[in-house]
Amino acid sequence: MRQPRTWGISCGASAASGAEQEEAAGALAVLGAVGERSNLLNAILAQAAQRGERIIVLTADSGLHRRLACAYTEGCEVLDALVGPHELSHLQYCLQQLRSGYTVPGREGQQDGALVVVDGLDSWLELLMRLPQVEGQLYDLLAQGHRYGYRVVFTSALSLRGRFASVAHSTLLSRRFVENDLMRKTVKNYPVPAQGHFAVEGTLNTDLIGDEPLEASVLSPVTLSSSELTKLLQDTSGRAHRVRPLVQFPEGISLPTQDAVLNVHRKSPGALLCGYQRDGSAALIHAPQGTFVPVPGARSSGKSTFLQNLGSLNPQYGVLHIAGANNPDAQQLRETFENVPHPERVILAVDDVPYISAATQQVLLEFGRKFRAGFIATPRTHGGFHHRCWRLCQGVHGRLLLIRAPLPMGRFVRFRSFRSICTRRVLYRRVGRLR
């Protein structure tokens, strides 16, 4: 008997119990080679796009990533996130946000759910062998995603091992996958699907066969070609603009125009502009006068570039650069500070603080309270910040910035905002000591 089958969270009234609804919304696994599963995956994405659902794609297939990225750059707005192979930092960020139940600005409180596609799970697990924490977050998304309101689909070309082998509530298996699986192949009554069809196991199979004692059924999938999916995604770009909070963090952001910078300061008078967040909004620090801001980071991570751009980002203030590598003399620095007119309108930018002598640091502490703020660049040690950076910040109202990655000169800073850093548990105690 032929009958259409659907999968996902129920959208209408149902007499089923809560447990049955939760089980029906569990993860769907599609096991087969890329060529066998791609058209089915295209159809799933197309249906979600036509309904205007949020879509998050985490794919280890460079081909699928290239096709979706092409439509994305041409103005498609239906994807909240698109993570490609080897973008592990972006993958980790998306998993953390999905686990916390992220919301789209302007749509808070709306329980519209989202479609999460984890394509090439077997390849992702190989890439995450040395990142067990990220692997655990991925497992939590697959196993518990339906509890957060997500519909989760994952694909794999190989049989999964360990805890990932039983994470799916329903499983679709291609003909070649069944033929290469010795356990299923030796089962006498196990149906071998025709080419292009799938064997169905799990919750979907239970709904199909009722009380009949069958281990699997055969499903003819809805398919869509890659070109048709691309065209459909391009057609959906005409809808209203949607904010995408899970976009990839760019390697570098070109310095904004002076008008754009001044507009930011007009909206937030008294704040210091330090960078840009993942969604492109300004990263501001609301710090009182005399604040010392540690800027830790590894070698060649962009600390000096950040200090050099402070003047362009805060044109209403002057910037006094102090190169610690030159080991400035304490007496000369004292005379320089005494001759600075209106220090409350000047930002101190101190680079390479480990090379500064104790006497010179004492001068910085003595005059630091008179300046608008002081940004102190220091390398990170195994125990945290350099001890001389801590000495400068002890007893001074401080804030924390963190440079994350190397930057080319002439580009602006890729760095996390103060607000996002303060929510990280690993840095909470250190931020608390600076307040």
Word description of this protein:
It is a single chain. The chain has 435 residues and is an alpha/beta fold. The protein contains 18 helices and 15 strands. It has helices spanning 18-24, 34-50, 62-73, 88-99, 121-127, 132-144, 175-180, 182-185, 203-209, 226-235, 258-267, 303-308, 310-313, 330-338, 358-368, 387-393, 418-422, 428-434, and strands at 28-31, 54-59, 79-83, 114-119, 150-156, 170-174, 198-202, 217-219, 272-276, 282-285, 291-297, 318-323, 346-351, 373-381, 384-385. It has an eight-stranded mixed sheet, sandwiched between helices. Helix 14 links the parallel strand 12 (318-323) and strand 13. The longest helix is centred in the first third of the chain and has 17 residues, at 34-50. The protein is elongated, with a radius of gyration of 27 Å. The N and C termini lie far apart (69 Å).
**What fraction strand?**
15-25%
Number of helices: 18
Total number of strands: 15
What is the helical fraction, as a range of percent?
25-40%
Average pLDDT number: 76
> Would you identify the regions where 5 or more consecutive residues have pLDDT less than 50?
9-24, 382-386, 394-435
Strand arrangement within the widest β-sheet reads 3-2-4-5-1-6-7-8
Biggest pleated sheet:
8 strands, mixed
Radius of gyration: 27 Å
SSE class:
alpha/beta
Instruction: State the shape.
Output: elongated
The end-to-end distance, rounded to whole angstroms, is 69 Å
